[in-house]
Amino acid sequence: MAERGVHLDHATLARWVVKYSPQLAPQAKRRKSKPSGPWRMDETYIKVKGQWMYFYCAVDGCGKTLDFMLSEHRDEAAATDFFARAVENNGWPDKVVIDESGANLAGLQNMNILLLLHGWFWLIEVLQAKYRNNMIEQDHRFNNSSPLQNNCVQR
């Protein structure tokens, strides 16, 4: 805006975000590409505004972030909420790779029970591997290339 000679206060930009983001969100959701490959899900403990929170994150086979969530708790209810939200925004995965967290396993089992209750017989395959999920941690490094992205086609 400054290049065009328009001087704005940061509060004006914040108001624009509040006003126009609900209108842009449905269009962005329609144009979003489908996830490829198995999902990888992990959570970590981070400090947000001085309070410790659990940061849940899921990426697809190419390393693209599918969804994330902050939670005060690391339990079955938080994991189920995260998976429900991720499925709502990205569709049902065929396979999910998680670490050896019992809460995440319970959350995925709840999602499979939900599938069975709605008459679906394709369940989410759950792969628990302690170190196989380390690829999700590559997203936090300084370099922009992830080992996951080497085998993916840019869309």
From TrEMBL:
One Pfam family linked to the record: DDE_Tnp_IS240
Top-rank taxon: Bacteria
Q: Name one GO biological process term.
A: DNA recombination
InterPro entries in alphabetical order: DDE_dom, IS_Transposase, RNaseH-like_sf, RNaseH_sf, Transpos_IS6
Protein role: Involved in the transposition of the insertion sequence.
Domain DDE, which positions?
A: 39-141
Electron transport as a keyword of this entry, yes or no, is: no
NCBIfam families linked to this entry? transpos_IS6
Query: What species is given as this protein's source?
Result: Rhizobium oryziradicis
| Gene Ontology molecular function: any one | DNA binding
UniProt protein name? DDE domain-containing protein
